[in-house]
Write a structure and sequence with these properties.
The protein is of the alpha/beta class. It folds into two domains: about 5-75 and about 240-290, 3-Layer(aba) Sandwich (Rossmann fold), CATH 3.40.50; about 75-225, HUPs (Rossmann fold). The chain is about 35% helix and about 15% strand. The chain has helices at about 15-30, 50-60, 75-90, 100-105, 125-135, 175-185, 205-210, 245-250, 255-265, 270-275, and strands spanning about 5, 35-40, 70, 95, 140, 150-155, 155-160, 165-170, 190-195, 220-225, 225, 290. It has a three-stranded parallel beta sheet, covered by helices on one side. Strands 4-5-8 form a three-stranded antiparallel beta sheet. Strand 6 (about 150-155) and strand 7 form a beta hairpin. The longest helix is centred in the first third of the chain and has 16 residues, at about 15-30. It is elongated and about 65 Å long. The structure holds glutamic acid. Glutamic acid binds near residues 8, 9, 195 and 199. Glutamic acid binds near residues 9, 195 and 199.
Amino acid sequence: MTSAGRFAPSPSGELHVGNLRTAILAWLFARSTGRTFLLRVEDLDRARAGAEVEQLRDLKAIGVTWDGEVVRQTGRGQLYADAITRLHHAGLTYECFCTRREIQEAPSAPHAPQGAYPGTCRNLDPAELEFKRATRPAAVRLRSDVQQYTVKDRLHGTFAGVVDDFVLRRNDGVTAYNLAVVVDDAEQGVDQVVRGDDLLPSTPRQAYLASLLNIPVPEYVHVPLVVNTDGARLAKRDGAVTLGDLSRAGIPVAAVRDRLLTSLGLQAGTLEHALNSFDPDMLPRKPWIWSA
Ligand code: GLU
């Protein structure tokens, strides 16, 4: 299988300049290392009708091109179910009936990291299980053997983070992001994951899950986010932040692209041209402040 990089947006709305900057970086990392570049629409959750079309249009407009067909997670339920079955057969899953509120109110397990699932449903006896099954649909959780796992990141170095008994399938039947992303990257030959550094804390869970599924762990590159003038992660409410808004404000797409490229210390122009000056070691490590 070829080695690939990817961009994997959730079609919850239009992409803003922060998402576009991450997409450009994912493209540059993949292309500068001879990888193919894939586009995967992560539509299991938070999908808004029409958003995918807008996102693909804006990616193309900014110059991000991809190889092959766009893949959508909603068409891949069998792959996720197969992975959960494998984990189940290895004794690595259990059913969980807790509501969010019950989890918040449960006393945390001794020595458990902050925010970790307290393990309420981990060792239910058969009678309790039967009773709970009659009251509520179950989520499926990973029976994790570790509380922490360490990953290597191209920009952050070694990063150790919490691994708890995280959810693999929600109780409404939707596959959880952490499972889907690991299965998809492996199945698509993705061995380089470039994404916003807000996802770094989830990465130890994903790498641990990959190890349980005998999947090679990809190279991780968590890139700095774009923030507003208050230092908060950029959002739609921050004014003109999409290509559509900016073009209505008189800023054409090429000017936005150039601003994004120069914010990365790269030459303005096409992305192909920017490849010539792309050096991962020279990338800014701090969030970039966007002011329209
Ligand atoms: N779909 C996720 C998002 O848009 C990104 C997942 C990933 O790149 O692994 O935040």
